[in-house]
Write a structure and sequence with these properties.
Blueprint: H1 2-9, H2 25-34, E1 39-41, H3 46-49, E2 56-57, H4 59-64, E3 69-75, E4 81-83, E5 95-100, H5 103-115, E6 123-127, H6 131-142, E7 147-151, H7 155-168, E8 173-175, E9 183-188, E10 212-217, H8 226-233, E11 237-239, H9 242-257, H10 263-275
Parallel strand pairs: 2-5, 6-7, 6-9, 7-8, 9-10, 10-11
Antiparallel strand pairs: 1-3, 3-4, 3-5
Helix pairs in contact: 1-10, 5-6, 5-9, 6-7, 9-10
This protein binds 2'-monophosphoadenosine-5'-diphosphate (ATR).
2'-monophosphoadenosine-5'-diphosphate (ATR) binds at residues 44, 128-133, 152-154, 157, 189-192.
Length: 277
């Protein structure tokens, strides 16, 4: 999606994927800095590790406690930090790595665009309390959802999250079980559904899909997980994780380039590459 976006805007930039062992992450970031990279994206399991490996943290990375985007910035002679793209002639005095997190914004943008959901005042059941689940829960709370129900295989993680949300967003009710009443939205943030033999992340003996209006699955491959298929059959509005992938990427693109991301171009490139159409 990034290379398609660079081409669409006529930018002579390239986005490349590298597989990095976590033990080499610091060296990889240093190498990218030394080679004058504009920035980096990081994914599992690097997002938490990178927090301690950057020189500055944007508010987004501080709030979510994870870094998925790095921008390299140069110090000018006046001691300002500017993205490296701003240095047309003359090398910066020093280069630093600033960490950002675009995942939470990506989720909110996808819910808005794909499900027409504004989170404020809504009741949400969130499945999963790993890295993605934690960020989603905190984002939902920060957007003033009314009630948030957290369910996860490992109960202690939902308990920790409840404490964290209560501390930072005391107005949000946080339940640690399936809701008995209806909700506006169910989100799957577990990895269940990635493999065809996976069980459903939702225990339908405890919660019926008739109890929700919409279901969002962060998984985008396969395009329709069994959860989404069941939700559709139950009459729910559904969307998969492609929109979240798109919007977190588009936000990162804007952080690096300073230009508005061509989201339509990026979405088409994603669909072409992931689904082949
Ligand atoms: P990510 O960064 O993608 O969120 P993660 O932090 O490993 O990855 O989280 C994976 C999520 O899927 C967790 O909520 C995990 O539950 P646990 O916290 O109990 O590990 C959930 N998950 C993974 N495999 C699962 C399984 N077989 N049954 C139930 N939940 C599972």
């Amino acid at each position: 999606m990034h290379n398609a976006a660079f081409a669409a805007l006529g930018l002579n930039w390239r986005y490349l994927a590298f597989e990095v062992d976590p033990k080499n992450l610091r060296a990889a970031i240093e190498g990218a800095r030394a080679m004058g990279f504009a920035g980096l994206n990081l994914t599992v399991p690097h997002k938490l590790l990178a927090v301690d490996m950057v020189d500055a943290l944007d508010e987004s990375a501080k709030v979510w406690g994870a870094v998925n985007t790095i921008r390299f910035e140069g110090r000018t002679e006046k001691s300002d930090w500017l993205p490296l793209r701003e240095f047309h002639q003359g090398a910066p005095v020093e280069i630093r790595a600033q960490g950002f997190n675009t995942d939470a914004e990506g989720l909110a943008a996808a819910l808005r665009e794909d499900l027409s959901i504004e989170l404020s005042g809504k009741k949400v059941l969130l499945l999963g309390a790993g890295g993605a689940g934690r960020t989603a829960a905190l984002k939902l709370a920060s957007e003033n959802v009314l009630e948030l129900f957290l369910v996860n295989r490992t109960f202690s993680k939902t308990l920790d999250l409840q404490v964290e949300i209560k501390k930072n967003f005391p107005a949000v009710y946080v339940g640690l079980d399936y809701p008995k009443t209806e909700v506006d939205l169910v989100i799957n943030a577990t990895s269940l559904g990635l493999k065809s033999e996976d069980a459903s992340p939702l225990d339908e003996s405890r919660f019926s899909l008739k109890q929700t209006r919409a279901v969002y699955d962060m998984i985008y491959r396969p395009a329709a997980t069994p959860l989404l298929a069941a939700a559709k059959a139950a009459g729910c509005k559904t969307a998969n994780g492609l929109g979240m992938l798109l919007h977190q990427g588009a936000k990162a693109f804007e952080i690096w380039t300073g230009q508005t991301a061509p989201r339509d171009v990026m979405r088409r490139a994603l669909e072409q590459n992931i689904y082949g159409h």
